[in-house]
């Protein structure tokens, strides 16, 4: 997660919650990961804002518990794939503003437009393909669309 700009504590906490057999309290997170309770609290709040953690209430228990939210990763990936279309549209607008005599600028934009057009085509049915993957209709040896 550090490579994505997140802190080491956030990465450790996400891994911990991902592997936990049940939702954990702040006290458990702090104790098991050797964090102060303040660090655990701050880290969990960051994870909640990023939607990679979920707050879980257990009937009869006063303390909040937290778990990893794996669905948020899937949703975020799908949203990132959708952003590629926005980039392609932005590049089209840029091309309309660059005069034909600015060949190098236009070439740079055309290269990016081609790349984003390919990505949009390739990922256009990613949700459908993922559902097929989950049903074991396709696997790693399957030919890509």
Automatic annotation (TrEMBL):
GO MF terms held by the record: DNA binding
Presence of the UniProt keyword Glycosyltransferase in the record: no
Coiled coil stretches, renumbered: none
Keyword terms of this UniProt record: DNA-binding, Transcription, Transcription regulation
Protein's recorded name: DNA-binding transcriptional regulator GbsR, MarR family
């Amino acid at each position: 997660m550090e490579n994505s700009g997140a802190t080491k504590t956030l990465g450790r906490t996400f891994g911990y919650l991902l592997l936990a057999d049940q939702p954990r309290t702040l006290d458990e997170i702090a104790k098991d990961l050797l964090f102060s309770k303040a660090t655990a609290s701050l880290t969990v709040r960051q994870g909640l804002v990023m939607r990679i953690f979920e707050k879980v209430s257990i009937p009869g228990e006063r303390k909040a518990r937290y778990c990893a939210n794996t669905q948020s990763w899937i949703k975020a990936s799908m949203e990132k794939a959708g952003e590629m279309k926005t980039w392609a549209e932005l590049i089209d607008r840029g091309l309309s503003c660059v005069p034909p005599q600015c060949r190098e600028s236009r070439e740079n934009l055309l290269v990016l437009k081609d790349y984003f057009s390919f990505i949009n085509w390739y990922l256009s049915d990613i949700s459908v393909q993922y559902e097929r993957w989950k049903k074991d209709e396709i696997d790693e040896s399957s030919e890509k669309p």
